[in-house]
Specification:
Elements lengths: L1 E3 L5 E5 L12 E6 L11 E6 L6 E6 L3 E6 L4 E7 L4 E6 L8 E6 L4 E5 L4 E6 L6 E6 L6 E6 L4 E5 L6 E4 L22 E6 L5 E6 L3 E6 L24 E2 L7 E6 L2 E6 L5 E6 L5 E7 L4 E6 L4 E4 L7 E2 L6 E2 L18
Antiparallel strand pairs: 1-2, 2-3, 4-5, 5-6, 6-7, 8-9, 9-10, 10-11, 12-13, 13-14, 14-15, 16-17, 17-18, 19-20, 20-21, 21-22, 23-24, 24-25, 26-27
């Protein structure tokens, strides 16, 4: 696992639990520390493995750079410099015909950097304020979602000259039929984006303390109600969805906890408590069915599904689970977890 810190340092962890104990500490394999010649000067906001090969990874930072790293030598293979602070970047998990990295900065334009040519090949114009989150579709090679402080979320086909396909409208056209530019996704900054694992829906979070679920093909607000989803982050908020669960979950940083909701019903399943300062990011690992969360308390916690053995009941011949059925395939929120 890659992690980036507010001190600019990047650390690689081995996630294997070699101790076989239920509570364990992952070992750091190596790091790009403060004494490394290519280390980021300021906070690292995003890290991502190259989707097709762990021999390479990318990082972006408030120091106005996106860096491409060789995992084996831990040297910077390429550096993209920007005029503004970088909030977010993302490489497509499925694209085979392009190597574009989408980059969101403090400026209103979305920039696409081509790893093959080493230059910024496209600029997407349409937002009016900083770009706080970017995410490629996990279903279509050329579809990109962007979220901005201007309250808007846009879907783009990066092959088109005009670019923008849809500007998401929370009112589904009822209040703003005349002008697409009036459409807003939230009543505040939109600072987080996440496609569902099949790419058919898009989740967004905003500083209006709301999370919304959108149909990603037609831009319709599905009107699923998640209740208040507390969000006072001034930068991008990294949240995540499950993959391979019987009902899919969304995990959202919520102060010093992580709120867990079912994606399509909006029901809050639990709150994961373990951190003691604000949680900035979380990521789901589908192979292990584990969740990892990073917090300002300088800890990364690993969360695993609660698996309870059925225990015999004295008064009955049948067996009962110790756990409420609603949580049997879900997540423990006890303070000892992680």
């Amino acid at each position: 696992m890659l992690s980036g810190g507010s001190d600019g340092v990047i650390v690689l962890y081995d996630l294997e639990n070699s101790s076989r104990q239920p509570y364990y500490t992952c070992k750091a394999v190596c790091s790009i520390g403060r004494d490394h010649p290519d280390v980021h000067k300021y906070s690292v906001e995003t890290v991502q493995w190259y989707p097709h090969d762990t021999g390479m990874f990318t990082s972006s930072s408030f120091d106005k750079t996106l860096k491409v790293w060789d995992t084996n030598t831990l040297q910077a293979a390429d550096v993209f410099n920007f005029e503004e602070t970088v909030y977010s970047h993302h490489m497509s998990p499925v694209a085979t015909k392009h190597c574009l990295v989408a980059v969101g900065t403090k400026g209103p334009k979305v920039q696409l950097c081509d790893l093959k040519s080493g230059s910024c090949s496209h600029i997407l114009r349409g937002h009016r304020q900083e770009i706080l989150a970017v995410s490629w579709s996990p279903r279509y090679d050329y579809i990109l979602a962007t979220a901005s402080a201007d309250s808007r979320v846009k879907l783009w086909d990066v092959r088109r000259a005009s670019g923008c396909l849809i500007t998401l409208d929370q009112h589904n056209g009822k209040k703003s039929q005349a002008v697409e530019s009036a459409n807003t996704a939230h009543n505040g900054k939109v600072n987080g984006l996440c496609f569902t694992s099949d790419g058919l829906h898009l989740l967004t979070v905003g500083t209006d303390n709301r999370m919304r679920l959108w149909n990603s093909s037609n831009g319709e607000n599905t009107l699923v109600n998640y209740g208040k989803v507390y969000n006072d982050s001034r930068k991008g908020l990294k949240f995540t969805v499950s993959c391979g669960c019987s009902s899919e979950f969304v995990f959202v940083p919520y102060g010093s906890t992580i709120a867990v909701y079912t994606v399509y019903s909006g029901e809050q399943i639990t709150m994961l408590k373990g951190h003691y300062k604000s949680v900035d990011c979380c990521v789901f690992q589908s192979n292990f069915q584990e969740l990892y969360s990073g917090s300002r308390d300088c800890n990364i916690l690993a969360w695993v599904p609660s698996l309870c053995e059925p225990v015999p009941d004295d008064n009955e011949t049948t067996t009962k689970s110790q756990l409420n059925p609603a949580f049997e395939d879900a997540w423990s929120s006890s303070d000892e977890e992680g």
